[in-house]
Please model this.
Amino acid sequence: MIEDINQEVKIILANLYKKLNLPFKIIKQTSFKANDYSFCSEVKIKLGEETKEYFLKIPKRDIAYIKSNERDIFPITERDKELGKNEVESLKKLNKKILSSEININLIKFIYYSSSENLIITEKIYGRDFFKILRKASLIKSFLYFPIKSVENNMFNLGKSLAVFSKKNEDIENIAEYKLNKSKINLYLKKISTKRNLFNYDNLFAKSEGKSSISSDGFKGLDIRNILIDELNQIYVLDPGKNKSEYAESNLARFITTLFIIFWGSFYFFIGFKTHKYYLDFFLKGFFSQNVKINPTILDFEIKKEIIKHWELAIRALENKKWNKYVSRLLKSFYIDKFYSSLILNSQISFKSYIKARK
Model:
C-alpha cells in the first residue's frame, strides 16, 4: 500500500513538469515517519539538470494518543481525509490573506492534494525552527540582558500577521456571545486530577457568562511550533491547521500559550522558563498594531483553557512512555504538574492597560 502512495507521488510530480519535456527522475525519497498528527516524507527529484525537493504529508486524526511504535498510516479513514482537506483549505485561505495584505511573512507553497491517498505535497523549505531560536534569545536576554534585533523584528511580524489572519473579510463586525464548552474542559480537568479545590471549572472560569466577542478567522495549527526561519531570516508558516470561525481572543490565546511552553522537554521548563517578556511584548505590539478588538477578560479565559489542554496532552504523552510507573509519577508531579499549575495560577495577564494604551 505504501508502494501505491509512492507510485502516485511519482505520477503527480512527473505530470507537474510534463509540458517542459525534460528528463524526470526521483533521486531520493525518505520513509514515512510518524508524528502526533501525520506521517511525513521527503522526496528529491531531478528535472533535466535541475534538482527540486518536496515535502509529503499524510494527515492522521487519531494517532496523537497512540504509542509511537503502534502508529500506522493505514487504514486512511474519513476523519483523516477531513483533516487533510481542512489543512489544504487553510493553506489556500492564508495564501489569499497574505497576497492581499502588506505583511512580511511567507507560507509554505502548496503543490497538490490527493484525496484518495490523503496526501499533501508542498515545496520543501530549508530553515530552522523559530521556537528554538526564540528559546536561545530568551535565555540570552535572561542571563546576559541584551536583545537580538532579528528576533524582535520576527516577533513583531508574527504578531502583526496573526492579527491580519484573524480578521474576516467582512465590512460589518460579527458580534458573538461568549460561551465555553464546560463539559469538554471538565474532561481535561479530570485527567489532570490535581488540587481539585483550585483547578475546577467554577473556580477557573467564574463569571465567564454574559460577555461578547468579535467573530474571527481561527487557524488551529497556527502557533510558534509551526514557524520556520530561512537563511535570509524570512518567516515561513508550515501548517495552519483547520480554519474555523471563532472568538478573536482564541487565536491570540493559542499562540501566547505556545510561547509560554517553548522550553518543554528541557531543564529550563522544569524551573519555569518561558518566552522572555521582552519578546512577548514585541509580539503583542505587532498584534495590536492592526487595531484588533480584544476583550482582556475573555483572553484570560481562553489562555487558561489552552493551558489546560496542553497540560492534559503532556500527561497523555507521559502515559504513552514505557517508563517505570514511579518515574512517571515523579515526572508528572515535579515536572508537568509543577509547571502548568504555576502557569495557570499566574496566567491572568492583565492586558487592560496594554490595550487601553493603544486605543
Q: What stands out?
A: The CA atoms of residues 1 and 7 lie 10 Å apart.
